[in-house]
Write a structure and sequence with these properties.
This protein is an alpha+beta fold. Helices cover 13% and strands 31% of the residues. The site of succinic acid has 9 residues, from strand 6, strand 12 and strand 13.
């Protein structure tokens, strides 16, 4: 078994996709505290997709824009439809971490204005999809894993391409952009293996330049 603290080198998952193992480990407590604060204002919810299915992943947002969906479709919005208020501000620690990670992967001018916060309980999954509701595909995606382990599926530019299975653990950061920006990805159903500090949940932060 690998320890959360084991040092590991960055791993290329594609020409412009990089796994930065444990890159966020030192900031994890601060990140989790910020998630607690923002989810007290804009709570986690299980949205219903245009296809009529309730997502197993609970989600909320922070930043100027937040990703949301309902029967009418997927979109970014400046107002949380559940509270009628703007999404909570992006915590400084999110912005700093995302920009440092993006820089480490070769993206020098990442200006995220949206952070989707996903919460997975055992059994929750995210089916293969592309992140394509953003305006500017030259800006990368930065994705931070906290809590329970998960298996990330990283596919191709077509849905039919068989995805690679990438194990993710607490503190891992993924950055993908450029020619990898529109690759299909998802998360396999989470196993029930509680994490020492976060317990039976996985939190994922996905930072993007949406507007
Ligand atoms: C996402 O694609 O929105 C989240 C991926 C993850 O939970 O790691
Ligand atoms: Fe995604």
């Amino acid at each position: 078994m690998q320890l959360d603290t084991a040092p590991e080198l960055p791993q290329a998952l594609g020409p412009q996709a990089l796994l930065l193992p444990r890159f966020a480990a030192a900031d994890a407590d601060e990140l989790v505290a910020a998630v607690r604060r923002l989810s007290a204002v804009s709570p986690f919810r299980h949205l219903v997709t245009p296809g009529g299915f309730a997502m197993s992943v609970g989600l909320t947002n922070c930043g100027a824009l937040g990703w949301t969906t309902d029967r009418r479709g997927y979109r970014y919005a400046g107002i949380d439809p559940e509270t009628g208020q703007p999404w909570p501000a992006m915590p400084t620690v999110f912005l700093r971490l995302a920009q440092t990670a993006a820089r480490a992967a070769g993206y020098d001018r990442f200006e995220p204005d949206a952070c989707l916060v996903n919460r997975y309980l055992p059994g929750a999954r995210l089916s293969l999809h592309q992140d394509r509701n953003e305006r500017d595909f030259t800006q990368p995606i930065v994705s931070v894993s906290l809590g329970m382990r998960a298996t990330f599926l990283f596919g191709g530019l077509q849905r039919a391409v068989k995805p690679a299975k990438i194990p993710l653990q607490h503190g891992d950061v993924l950055v993908w952009g450029g020619s990898d920006r529109l690759r299909y990805h998802g998360i396999m159903p989470l196993k029930d293996e509680p994490h020492p500090t976060l317990g039976g949940q996985r939190i994922n932060l996905t930072l993007r330049k949406a507007g």
